[in-house]
Amino acid sequence: MGAPCNVVVLISGSGSNLQAMIDSLAAGDTPARISAVISNRADAYGLTRAAQAGIPTAVLDHKGFADREAFDSALIQAIDAYAPNLVILAGFMRILTPGFVRHYQGRLLNIHPSLLPKYKGLDTHTRVLEAGDAEHGCSVHFVTEELDGGALVVQAVTAVTPGDTAQSLAMRVHQLEHRIYPLAMRWFAEGRLQLDGDSAMLDGVPLPACGTLIRA
């Protein structure tokens, strides 16, 4: 196995997806290595998860900066100190500037709790129920300047049942996130996943518009 794929993970909260990635690294021979976890909130529990796993952490409080551009500029400096091959947004509750997104083009992944392109933005579970959808899920995608846009890598799908609430859907979708985000990280670290223009490529083949589909 060659040099590890350096990964920097950005968080704002509990870091459950981060934990899923940490667990996946401990269990297998993936060439990924989480070099650092950076949060914009000092009270994010994900920082504790990282520290318990021996991963360096940093806090960059967005409230200490004059504007979004100044914060993102400082964030780029903090991230690039670890020479990352891949940057992962794992519950990082900040809208990123176009300059930040361009800086990491092709090596910036996000996860969203809906079957994109449906339900970009917030309150996805409630919106699925209100629409009467038969299916719900989550999506890993490359990040572009469009909010929750970018080429889809992998989606996990679950059926919506008559008794579902926003809370029950959220719990199920979280479990799916913990399956597909470590998978996408591994694909990238193994050199299998790339962004070519506007298309996500897996093993040199363009993925379908929905990415790889996994049904729960």
Automatic annotation (TrEMBL):
InterPro entries associated with the record: Formyl_transf_N, Formyl_transf_N_sf, GART, GART_AS
Residues binding N(1)-(5-phospho-beta-D-ribosyl)glycinamide, per UniProt: G15, S16, N17
Binding residues for (6R)-10-formyltetrahydrofolate: R68, M93, R94, I95, L96, N110
Formyl transferase N-terminal domain: residues covered: 6-184
Substrates-to-products reaction catalysed: N(1)-(5-phospho-beta-D-ribosyl)glycinamide + (6R)-10-formyltetrahydrofolate = N(2)-formyl-N(1)-(5-phospho-beta-D-ribosyl)glycinamide + (6S)-5,6,7,8-tetrahydrofolate + H(+)
UniProt-annotated site: Raises pKa of active site His, residues: D148
Stretches that traverse the bilayer: none
Signal peptide: none
Keyword annotations of the record: Purine biosynthesis, Transferase
Pathway named in the protein's UniProt entry: Purine metabolism; IMP biosynthesis via de novo pathway; N(2)-formyl-N(1)-(5-phospho-D-ribosyl)glycinamide from N(1)-(5-phospho-D-ribosyl)glycinamide (10-formyl THF route): step 1/1
EC number: 2.1.2.2
SUPFAM superfamilies on file: Formyltransferase
CDD domains: FMT_core_GART
Active site: H112 (proton donor)
Class of enzymatic activity (EC top level): transferase
A GO molecular-function descriptor: phosphoribosylglycinamide formyltransferase activity
Pfam families: Formyl_trans_N
Family of the protein in this entry: Belongs to the GART family.
Function: Catalyzes the transfer of a formyl group from 10-formyltetrahydrofolate to 5-phospho-ribosyl-glycinamide (GAR), producing 5-phospho-ribosyl-N-formylglycinamide (FGAR) and tetrahydrofolate.
PANTHER family: PHOSPHORIBOSYLGLYCINAMIDE FORMYLTRANSFERASE
Protein name, entry field: Phosphoribosylglycinamide formyltransferase
Species annotation: Serpens gallinarum
Upper classification of the organism: Bacteria, Pseudomonadati, Pseudomonadota, Gammaproteobacteria, Pseudomonadales
Gene name per UniProt: purN
